[in-house]
Batch of 2 targets.
Target 1
Amino acid sequence: MTDNPDEFAAHNARMKRVQAARERIQARHTLERGLLIVHTGNGKGKSSSAFGMAIRSLGWGMKVGIVQYVKGSWETGEKNFFQANPELLTFEVMGDGFTWDTQDRAQDIASARAAWERSKARILDPAYDFIILDELNIVLRNDTLPIDEIVAFLRERPLTKHICITGRNARPELLEIADLVTEFAEVKHPFKAGFKAQKGVEY
Amino acid sequence: MTDNPDEFAAHNARMKRVQAARERIQARHTLERGLLIVHTGNGKGKSSSAFGMAIRSLGWGMKVGIVQYVKGSWETGEKNFFQANPELLTFEVMGDGFTWDTQDRAQDIASARAAWERSKARILDPAYDFIILDELNIVLRNDTLPIDEIVAFLRERPLTKHICITGRNARPELLEIADLVTEFAEVKHPFKAGFKAQKGVEY
């Protein structure tokens, strides 16, 4: 596009038609209820996108509950931030770290079960408007928690709040009942160029 | 997997080997510098993932600057949250809304230029550790800003901070110089099932 005023006028007229079309489309979208959201795929950003939605919710005065299933006891930026602001939301790290770090299947199962019981309590608590179950997909993939039980509960969930579940390798049973699914696909990753995980980006 | 103790022991031994392999791989990744990050694709979560990285950075005491190129004057959760916490970061909405809403190409160009000048100042300011240029891809795609000028500047950027650029239809010239690229792919979207955009999720 040049600086030609005729082209500008044509652009402006075209955008007026686009706007009218968009308004007609939006008028047809009237449903509103709590969504079941899944972030999956091998790319970066599944958890950080959920944390960004937490920020959006907090900006509207909605109460947020986060349960982390896998992240262990190590320090992360999100833990530092959210735990320093307990008046904003609850942030509970229930996982013991990756299963190759715990090397204890019985402990993995016990931790995942405790995290799921806490998750159910948060989902059923009317005080909460947005619930993040971070890395739940990982423990479902490993059969550390039984997929049938989790799906049965989520089917009957209260529709007054949003729930976001993250982690690669989401189970098809979960995708089937979800309202919003995004796949995060890795296009280029600095780890492969020799970079280490860095503060603010990876943790 | 069953509750059989032999299977548990085999799992635990296998995980010990996985852990050792991971440690060997990680020892080879030693590079550390500011990354150029691009979030693109037609799926949801590009901006919210950037806001989640902002939270991670804030949790480490890093200073964050956000410049929004397209979002207009309407209220959003992230704007409410971040602007209510100005001690945490700077959040500047420089865009006038979508081009079909402004219907004024000359104004679009002037706004994008002002946003880019502000972005450069933030990138060059040593006080900032993480810069988000939200929806810059949109104005590059429209040629509202010249891609060559932006790429030339980013090539010579200070390597002491991370920069995250969001928006669908990222230009190939930008992907080429980026360190980390994630494509957000839409798998299932509630809009298509008749839902309207909802607080905390979409805005």
Note: Chain B has two domains: 1-30, 31-193.
Target 2
Amino acid sequence: MSARDVLIVQEVAPRDGFQIEPRFIETADKIALIDALSRAGFTRIEATSFVSPKAVPALRDAAEVLERIARCPGTIYVALVPNLKGAERALAAKADELNLVMSASETHNRANMGLTCEASLAAFARIVEAARGTGVRLNATVATAFGCPFEGAQAPERVLDLVNRYLALGVEGVTLADTTGMANPLQVRRLVARALSRIPAERLTLHFHNTRGLGLANVLAAREAGALRFDAALGGLGGCPFAPGATGNICTEDLVSMCHEMAIATGLDLDALIRLSRGLPALVGHDVPGQVAKAGRPCDLHAPPRTA
Amino acid sequence: MSARDVLIVQEVAPRDGFQIEPRFIETADKIALIDALSRAGFTRIEATSFVSPKAVPALRDAAEVLERIARCPGTIYVALVPNLKGAERALAAKADELNLVMSASETHNRANMGLTCEASLAAFARIVEAARGTGVRLNATVATAFGCPFEGAQAPERVLDLVNRYLALGVEGVTLADTTGMANPLQVRRLVARALSRIPAERLTLHFHNTRGLGLANVLAAREAGALRFDAALGGLGGCPFAPGATGNICTEDLVSMCHEMAIATGLDLDALIRLSRGLPALVGHDVPGQVAKAGRPCDLHAPPRTA
């Protein structure tokens, strides 16, 4: 099986999905979902975020979640960290990997992190120091890599320069994130091809939102450029603060269904994912955007109506 | 500008969208929408269907719609016809083009049309006779070309044989329809490439539903194989009787936004389409699946929040 026949999905619903839910998801429910996701075959799960409990009360139980989940051998449990304090909490909670985040857009980084981009990079360097010798992996994300809702298009050179600086800091993985769903397939193919001249596909993750309906088309465009690893959220949880009613992350089970129909292996149990997704509306208290959980797999046939 | 830089959208909301709406859309509202669509730049609009008013009361005003719309020079107003009687009504109402429909799947054709496939083909021959000398164009659709909800996968040879038989009957255009959204991009690329060895791209239309989230990815796959012409519905109207809550046709304004972001010309006024789509919930009485109308175009920027 060649790399062209495989796609690696990192499940991010417990972090990127739950962080914006207005209703607090009970810690036991979070743990049950993460454990079920582990059993469904994920090798990477972004389990929580060590942000300020005041800023994001939805994830105030980050340490307890990491402590109580049943860790599956071979699965990497990732924690997003916004700063050194968050990194120290995540290290104490024994996250397998820290995901550091800043935006390509100066305006977005100030709005989202309260820091200039240079201050974020300096914080990254301190986190790298703190993690040294712990055996914990580091990934760094370029948010708004495909466009910023305040500034608009971001120069590819700016994004690629950040990739270079991340690698120089010593992080293992890099994520390019389309934070508010502004990317298009032509842009994705070009930027991913350039990023892959700097970092091998095994270490690059693409994070797409389906805000304007292009999430899965962007996945295929990234794959054509050589990408292997993608973030996705069960049920398409997540969202965009600037687009009420807009859809969130690309939907895990829709992505996996597409892959399996195209003979691309994911190692994931699609039936289990659909069952889990169908439980989400009861958990979060609203409908979710995922479509395969509503429509069924293409191979789920129906009885024809009786005709005269 | 090469053919690679152009995509032709046929708007089908007035037919494929309105036909399944439980609430009757007033004739004046249908006409106002079609006229606004004409002004937005469409060169092809599937305006209605001459089905039995008992079977599809939603479109019982087909003749009045065709009579009262303000026809735009250069725009082709298409009417779907299920049988010879419908074709005679459509010819009397001066449709510019008739769209004949049957399914690749014998089971689906019996369920949908009440006919065997051979009986449908015989009816097509009679319709061709009836249209001869009128100057009215003919298009014929292969429904369930990418899969049948009762039978499952359809052999490509079966679909391509129907394309051959349509062309032998003398129709000008052929549509391959993914009636219940079962297609995937790999399958689309392969089948479209084979179809284009039989019919030039200018005469082939692809009709995708977004039932499982792959509609726009399938458009790009078809384009890679050389396709030029696509059906889409404003707001993503339409649906699938076997998947309550599932999305319908691919969404016109989402498709057009994608194209314009990728420097593919459509000749359509995206701002006008978004305005029209934002009026649909009031017209049909429910939310619609289109995403760009909710999220705005990628270039619609937001003011950054004030930070300390």
Note: Chain A touches chain B through 57 residues (CB under 8 Å).
